Each structure stands twice: as C-alpha cells, then as structure tokens.
Amino acid sequence: MASDRDMFECVWLDNTANSTEENKDIQKKLRLIIKKLHMFDNVETCEKYLRNTTKESVILIVSGAFGRQIIPKIHDLPQIIAFYVFCQNKRSNEEWTNKYNKLGIVCTSSSELISCISKDQSTRTGTEENPLISVISSNCDSMESRNASFL
Questions:
Q1: What is the pairing mode between strands 9-13 and 103-107?
Q2: CATH match for 4-148 among 3.40.50.720, 3.80.10.10, 3.40.50.2300, 3.40.50.10860
Q3: Which of 32, 51, 107, 124 has an alpha carbon within 20 to 30 A of 113's alpha carbon?
C-alpha cells in the first residue's frame, strides 16, 4: 500500500539547487515530507518533465527568476497543485506571484520554506506534521488558509 508521501512529487527548479550546502540540506528535509524529489536547473527541461509527468500531485519549488519564466506556462496544469518561490527578493517576487491561486508562499528563508511545505502537506494528506520538521517555527500563511479567506 502506498503511503501519503508516495502520492506526491516535489520538483525543484533552481540553477543553484544542487550547488550549496544549504540547498542540499533542504533536499534532505524535503525528502522527509515528500518522498520523490526531482531537481532541475533548466526551465525548458523542467517544463517538459512537468507536462509529461504521470503523477497527479506535483509541488513545485522555483527561484524567483525561473518562476517568472515557468509559472505562466504551467500554472494551469492539473498535476501542479502548489508552487513555492524560494528567492532572495521577497517583495519583487510577491508582486508577480499574487495573481496565481496555487501559490504556497514566497520566502527567503529555508526554514520558512520547509515549514510551509510541511504544514501544507499535512493539510493535504490529513496527517500530523512530521515531528522532525514541526519544530521549525512558521510565520507563513499556508495556501489553504489564504484561499479560504476568499470563500
């Protein structure tokens, strides 16, 4: 029987995702939340993968620059359930992302990114947060609570 973590896939598009120790640490923490993690450093390759994936529930993490390029092209794909922008300039990226309803968060902190993804995944799967992740404090509004305010 497949676990809740098997139902989801995380795709991370960033030209530095594999090159820093912080990002490698983030990858380890993400795998505690979502078993399957794919890394891309090229927008076109990532877009092709997303369009052809057979997974029904894909969570996308993008840098600000790559997000501006790919989100308008793939946002409406049914397999994309949420995207998170992990960037260095929160304010400028909040401007272009605010029109997309699948936005999880725009953040500059790795702990905030992990905390929000963990919280959102717990909501999606109906399970408690991973105890290894829940110790991270969160100031983020999860996608579900933000969208609920529009109802």
A1: unpaired
A2: 3.40.50.2300
A3: 51
Judged by phi (left if over 0) then psi (alpha if -120 to 50, else beta), residue 3 lies in: beta
Gap between the terminal Cα atoms of the chain: 35
Long-range pairs for 19-22: beta carbons < 8 A, 24 or more residues apart: 22/110
Per-residue pLDDT tens over the stretch 50-86: 999 877 799 999 999 999 999 999 999 999 999 999 9
Query: Token pair 């609570």 is at which residue?
Result: 145
Helix (H, G, I), strand (E, B) or coil at 29: helix
